[in-house]
Write a structure and sequence with these properties.
single chain, five-stranded antiparallel beta sheet
Length: about 375
């Protein structure tokens, strides 16, 4: 991983964005200027982030973050970016829960000012477990923490999921409902199948991903349970921590009604993804951290809901992540950063663990 260049995330000019942002800001807060505008090194592979300060005698807040819909010319990760949906989700969670979400300030639905819709929120100070290199590798603050500090962070992070699921009134989240007929889980999986079909349109299909969809059908829960609001991208890399306490929950673009286990499976598997990469590189990683059994037990204690069918939901998480990884790989091909191999499944970084899940042997091997 260390030898590979980070995939291109944008074709936009940060200096031009800063100029246009100041013009937009002045129209809403006369005399205001956007200063110290930066694109963080950890800028995502989906929506883009700008950090800036407001220079004004009476700013609503001084330190801000701006989430900008992805640049269409940068071979986007997802087919569309609904910034209004994200903005409304963050307001909903902020109004109905004690989950720490950043205060949202402005929504701009007109693409003209910055080239795409965006919203602005207060920037929260703190630290985030890194993705590159992943926090499971040596040399970062979470890896260097004590077992007790990591346990505290794990408990607090699972607690966030419990509170999102228990506190958000789903009746207020109708705007997040996925299209189609049937229950929330069926709609969720169908939306992922449609996303996969979009990713491979005109390109090589993935036999492994298609086998994973077939395996999901075989493992389908007998009773998926009552849906709740799922955060969507439920992982510690989307949380800002003050010390080891969460102070901001970020990245709500994948939020949707679904069984609780959709979020839980994503939390568990995204950690396993990093842990497996680390172990493959010869480092021990953090094998005792965010273990599936501990996450399930902790969540059950907090909510009274015992997670079920987790082999289905962790496979579903690995499958969803594989589709994203395939899209990112094809984007690297588009920009001339990589070539398509004879076996398209090898474009999926975790193809080995996904295959083990499809074959039903993954969890017996990692315990």
């Amino acid at each position: 991983m260390a030898a590979k260049p980070r995939p291109r995330t944008t074709t936009r000019d940060p200096a031009e964005l800063a100029r246009r942002l100041t013009a937009w800001l002045d129209a809403r807060l006369p005399g205001a200027r956007a200063v110290d505008v930066t694109v963080p090194a950890s800028n995502g592979l989906s929506s883009e982030t700008l950090l800036f300060d407001i220079e004004h005698p009476r700013p609503p807040v001084r330190a801000c973050a701006l989430r900008l819909a992805a640049d269409p010319s940068a071979y986007t990760v997802f087919p569309s970016y609904d910034m209004t949906r994200q903005y409304r989700t963050m307001r909903l969670v902020g109004e109905h829960t004690d989950v720490p979400v950043p205060r949202v300030l402005w929504l701009e639905e007109d693409p003209e000012p910055l080239g795409a819709p965006f919203f602005v929120m207060a920037r929260v100070a703190g630290r985030v477990p890194p993705d590159v290199m992943p926090y499971t590798y040596e040399g970062n603050w979470l890896h260097a923490a004590t077992d007790g500090e990591r346990e505290h962070l794990e408990a607090a992070s699972v607690g966030l999921l419990a509170r999102v699921h228990d506190q958000v009134p789903l009746a207020r989240a109708g705007f997040l409902a996925l299209p189609g007929e049937g229950d929330a889980l069926s709609r969720h999986v169908r939306s992922q199948r449609a996303y996969y079909d979009w990713v491979v349109d005109g390109l090589a299909r993935s036999p492994l991903i298609e086998a994973a969809f077939d395996r999901l059908t075989e493992l389908w829960p007998h009773e998926p349970g009552t849906p709740v609001l799922n955060w969507g991208d439920a992982r510690i890399g989307n949380i800002v921590y003050d010390g080891f306490d969460p102070v901001a929950v970020l990245d709500w673009e994948m939020a949707a009604p679904a069984p609780r286990e959709v979020d839980l499976g994503w939390t568990v598997y995204l950690h396993r993804f990093f842990q497996d990469l680390t172990a493959a590189s010869g480092q021990p990683g953090l094998p005792g951290f965010l273990r599936r059994d501990r996450v399930e037990a902790r969540y059950a204690r907090l909510t009274g809901h015992t997670p079920r069918d987790m082999e289905f939901y962790t496979l579903y998480a690995a499958l969803r992540h594989a589709i994203v990884m395939l899209r990112i790989a094809y984007r690297q091909v588009y920009f001339g950063e990589a070539a398509v191999p004879a076996d398209p499944d090898t474009l999926i970084l975790h193809h080995g663990s996904l295959r083990a899940m499809v074959q039903g042997r993954y969890w017996s091997e990692v315990r």
